[in-house]
Write a structure and sequence with these properties.
- By secondary structure, this protein is of the alpha/beta class.
- The protein has 4 helices and 5 strands.
- Strands 1-2-3-4-5 form a 5-stranded mixed sheet.
- β1 and β2 form a beta hairpin.
- α1 packs parallel to α2.
C-alpha cells in the first residue's frame, strides 16, 4: 500500500508522503510527482513534509533530482512544512537554500500565496 498521496488543489500539485523518506518510498515519490507534474502541466508542485519524520540519503537524492528536473522544465517545487529532523538534514547537507522551503502552508492557498511564502 502506497503512503503517497497526490492531488490538485487550486491548480497546484500537492503531494504528501507519510512516514520516513527513504528507499523505496523516495524513488516512488520522485517518480509519481514528476509524472503528475509533467502530465498535468503544473507550474507549481508542493511536497508536504508534515508527516515525514526523517529523511535519509536516498530521500535527499530524490528531492534534489526532483527539484532539478522540475526547474529545468521551468516549474517550481516547494517543500512545505518540513519536520525539524528533515529541515535539519537539509541544512546539514547545505541544501536548505537549494529548495524553496515554506512553513504554515495548506492546500487551500492559491498559487500566488504559495509562491510568495518562503522561510529561510
Amino acid at each position: 500500500m502506497s503512503r503517497i498521496a497526490i492531488s490538485n488543489r487550486h491548480g497546484v500539485l500537492w503531494a504528501r508522503s507519510d512516514g520516513p523518506l527513504g528507499n523505496p518510498v523516495a524513488l516512488e515519490l520522485e517518480t509519481a510527482v514528476l509524472e503528475a507534474a509533467t502530465m498535468g502541466r503544473y507550474a507549481v508542485s508542493v511536497l508536504d513534509l508534515t508527516q515525514t519524520p526523517s529523511i535519509d540519503s536516498s530521500g535527499v537524492g530524490a528531492l534534489v533530482r526532483l527539484q532539478t528536473a522540475l526547474a529545468t522544465k521551468g516549474r517550481r517545487l516547494i517543500l512545505a512544512n518540513p519536520t525539524p529532523a528533515v529541515a535539519d538534514e537539509l541544512r546539514l547537507r547545505d541544501l536548505h537554500a537549494f529548495f524553496q522551503i515554506a512553513y504554515d502552508l495548506h492546500p487551500d492557498m492559491d498559487q500566488e500565496e504559495l509562491l510568495l511564502a518562503s522561510d529561510l
